[in-house]
Amino acid sequence: MLKHLVPLGMAFAEYTGAKDYFYANSKCTGCKICEKVCLSGKIKMIDKKPVWQRNVKCYFCYACLNYCPVKAIQIKSKLYMKSYTEENERYSHPYATANDIAEQKSGRKLSSVLN
Questions:
Q1: DSSP states of 17-57 as a string?
Q2: Are strands 22-24 and 73-75 parallel, antiparallel or unpaired?
Q3: Is this prediction's pTM over 0.85?
Q4: Nearest-5° angle of CA 67, CA 70, CA 74?
Q5: How many CB atoms lie within 10 A of CB 48?
Q6: pLDDT at residue 18, as a whole number
Q7: Where does residue 84 rank: exposed (0-12), middle (13-18), buried (19+ CB within 10 A)?
Q8: Which residues of the chain have pLDDT under 50?
Q9: Domains of the chain
Q10: pLDDT at residue 89 in the model
């Protein structure tokens, strides 16, 4: 049953506004880490800024938010939900680095991808 609920939840989230869920504020340095850790491939760097593609579904793993080294990735507040990402800390996995995620996705280390 759970395997059917996850795709339904993702479809509902996309339908109700998750397409504009994340954004990068002025702190963004264009380091590309958000793009490299994005498991769904939704983030593409354009003019040194992350762009969340509308035609790619987000997995809501929050890796882009949690691994941003300058805390530039934010969640937009909605009428029904206040976002506190500007004030709150980030919670990356204690045993998985951004490099681990990028390497798993591409088979290459993040440092070699960024150079």
A1: TGGGSEEE-TT-----HHHHH-TTS-EEEETTEEEE-TTS-
A2: antiparallel
A3: no
A4: 70
A5: 10
A6: 57
A7: exposed
A8: none
A9: 2-114 (3.30.70.20)
A10: 86
